Every structure is written in C-alpha cells, then in structure tokens.
Amino acid sequence: MEEKKSYKIYKIIMLMVLVAFITFLVTTIGMNEYFNNKNNNGSTDAIVSEINNFRRIIDKYYLGEVDEEKLKEGAIKGYIEGLEDPYTEYISKEDMQDYLEDTMGNFVGIGIYMVEDKETNKIMVLSPIKNSPAEKAGIQPGDYITKINDVEYTGEQTTEASNKIKGEEGTTVKLEILRENETLTYEIKRENIKVNPVEGKVLENNIGYIAFSSFDQETAEDFKNKYEELSKQGIKSLIVDLRNNGGGIVSVALEIADYFTPKNSVLLYEVDKNNNEEIEKSKNDPIINMPVIILTNENTASSSEILAGALQDLGIAKIVGTKTYGKGVIQEVLSLPDGSGIKITSEKYLTPNKREINEVGIQPDVEVELPETVTNILNVEEKDDTQLQKAIEMLK
Description:
It contains nine helices and 19 strands. The protein has helices at residues 2-61, 68-81, 93-104, 133-137, 158-165, 219-232, 250-258, 303-313, 386-395, and strands spanning 89-91, 106-109, 112-117, 122-128, 144-148, 151-152, 172-179, 182-189, 191-194, 199-203, 207-211, 237-241, 266-271, 277-281, 292-296, 317-321, 329-335, 341-350, 366-367.
C-alpha cells in the first residue's frame, strides 16, 4: 500500500516537473520569437510608418484617383531600387511570364536583343535575331529605340520597353529609331520567336568558327550540334566568338565548358553572402580536343565570362580581343505568392584560379583593338575584323 502511494506521489511530482518544463520551453520560445521579431521588424515598422504618413497626405490632398495596385508596385520597386544593385529588380506579375519565356528562349515579339546604353541613357539594339521580323524590317545593331507606340522610353526603362514591344502574335508595334542623326519609324508585326543564336562556319585552314549572342535553355545542345556539324567538315581548330554576348543561364555556360575540359575539372566557384563556397566541376570527358581561341570585347558579360575565364585558367583556350565587361555576380529569380517575382543578386563567382571578375573583367591573352574606322562594334565586316584576323593567324 505504501509502495502504491509512493508511486502515485512520484507520478504527480514528475507530472508537475514536466508541466513546468513545457511551460518554460513555450515561454522561452515565445520570448525568443518576440525579441527576434522586434529586432527584425524595427526598420520595417519605420518604413510602414513613413508610408502611412504619405498615404494620409495623398488621401487629404491628391486630386486624382488612387490605384492601389500601382501604389503597391511602385513602393516595392522603389524599395528594391534602394539597394542600388543594377542586377536586382522586382518583376511584376504581368511581366513574370514574359521574363521566364525570354529565359527559355521563346517569346512573342519582333526578335531583338536590347541593352541599356548607360553613357547615353538610351535603349540600344544589341542585334536583331536572324530571320526575325525586326531584321526583315531593317532594324540594325546600334540603333537606339527612343519611342514605342509614341511613348518615350529611356535606358533605365529597358525592361518596361521590352515588355511593351512584346504582345499578341499578329499585332503590330510602332518603334521610333534613332540611327546616327536620322530618326526612323517602323511598324513591325509581332511573331512567335524561336531563339536559335548559335551560328557557325568553316574558315580558311580548316578553322571552325562558332558565334552566339546569349546562353538560353537550348544553347548548349545547339552549340554541340554546330560543333559536330563543323567537325564532319574537317575542322582542325576552333574560334568561339563571345563578343557582344551578354550572358544568360549559368548552368548552360558550364555545360558548354564541359565539352572542352577533362572530367572533374573545376569550372567555377560560387560564393554566397556568408562566404560559403560551392564548386562547379565538369561532369564528362571532353568532346572537343583541338586548339581553341575565344574572342571577347567590352560587351562580353556574365555567363560568357564564366566560359571564357574557365577555359583560359585551365589552359584550354587563348583569349583574343579586348577586356570583358566585368559582371561577376549571379542572380536567381524567386517567385512570390502573388505571381510576381524578384531577380536578386545572391552569389559572386570566381574563375578556377579564384580570380575576381565583378567590376574587373577578364584580360585577353592577346589584346587587339578594332580599327578606328569601325564605328559600330556590333556590326563589323570580316575585312575590318582585326580581332578575328588575329585569331586566324594564331591558329594557322
């Protein structure tokens, strides 16, 4: 009997201890969350308070109608722009699908690559896609797009301009183009554009030549097919032209680098904000075993620099031309619950020899400038292309 009583008291004591422990645990977690939220939300609360102040002013004085969605979107855009990172941007719900289609290499539009010309704050045509409505209409590399459907756009509005140029298949878009000192107007019908930027040919002395202007989803496979096509024609060396290639999908650049490099070669170091390193290595035996020269210029950027830097560091290719752009950071696109997204700079990359590229660029092995007579580096005739001629000379 005494034993049963003792056991009962023991159970009560253990229950009390357990309840006290759980109460302590819950309280600790609750206080932790409270102070963490207080610390994390301090600056956020200040921003919300400021926005509410402005909202009260708008409600009291603003004469026009208030579009809640546009106010929200403007606030988010301004918040992101405050980072002053040229590569981080908010993507609205309406623009998100277009952005993903561009990355995949398929979209409805007129078929042009555009960039922001920071010197002039204008939108510059990098190049029209081959056989696209833009090329057929007469749009040329180096043209400046000043107006779209009679609305003026600046270089800072390149993303918005790109989305305005796109639209439903069969509809038209009106462009005002500045070419040197002449203003031209084009009305171009939109079509479903299939991007296939990889082009190639055989030059003198059985030298293969491959050029492409971006790294899209299918570029690696297209590159491989083009190389195999040229290989059947008996090429003994290869020129890869990355001039005016603004980059694209990093994994595609690594896949192309894999064609050249021994298995398990280090191709890239990716470093996050906490200095954690992720090493990207080649996964297969090389399929390209011949002398290689890469052509670069000041518009060679991002994924192009990954490919050029890897092959240069590993001693597989020489680089001819001018120093590259210097974009050594990687962005990822995060989808938000409402369908919008953010493209955010999340990592920097280093070459296999751990060279910094961001805001530095890659120096060519042999620096060659184009002649002063060349006024448009986006459209150079072969007879004036001293960089290509130097590469051919080196491979003879």
